[in-house]
Amino acid sequence: MKTRMLALVLLFGCALTGRADWQQEYAAVLKKYVGADGVRYGAWKKNTGDMEAIQRVTDGIAASKQTDLAFYLNAYNAWILHEALAKYPTKSVKDPLFTFFLKDRIVVGGRKMSFNALEKEVIRGGFKEPRVHFALNCASQSCPPLNSEPFRGSDLEAVLDKLATEFVNSERGMRMDGEGVALSKIFDWYKEDFGGSNGVIRFINQRRKQPLATKVKITFQEYNWNLNETK
After folding, report:
1. How confident is the model over 90-131, as pLDDT tens digits?
2. Mutual orientation of helices 48-63 and 69-87 as an angle, nearest 10°?
3. Dist. CA 20–CA 36, nearest whole Å
4. Is the peptide bond before 96 cis (omega within 30 degrees of 0)?
5. Left, alpha or beta for 215 (phi > 0: left; psi -120 to 50: alpha)?
6. Handedness of CA 181, 182, 183, 187 (dihedral sign)
7. Beta bridge partners of 112
């Protein structure tokens, strides 16, 4: 009986250690290669040790049993980095048929899926949280900037609000366009997540330093799919 209990304790301890290891490695590579202007893909691709590190991160995500929102946000962003690095050098991860996002190419918690399924079914469908759109990064210039730290459940609420606030107050999120405003295409594609067109305005005005008029003329910016690379 004691032997069995000891084995279970050791197994549980190893599981926790493995989980912590990939999170720690993910934090380390984010800190090293991610900045306000993008990701240093070139330097990362040249570093064999850090390429092995992102592989261990995605291996850990593939085997993890976590089911919380912070985990799924990390899973999406880490796998995007893994696959973008695999394609690098490239001008964009997007291909004409969007197979990068639609093909079952990643494994999260033992389930093989696509980026589209992870975003649409697991994250958006499972959590009904519009602020995830400012935490997910699709390796493209018009995406909200990649967070330079892993997401953690303990402070996720504050971090999500910070990212949403920064985005709606940035040129990437909203810029003046004549007598109206040009919003990020995110607010067009996913407007139902915000409660429709009026919900988009309410969401923005809750966070904007200068609120928008209710009847303001709205257009949407063209989405820039070029790689979010910085040197």
Report:
1. 999 999 999 999 999 999 999 999 999 999 999 999 999 999
2. 140
3. 26
4. no
5. alpha
6. positive
7. 107
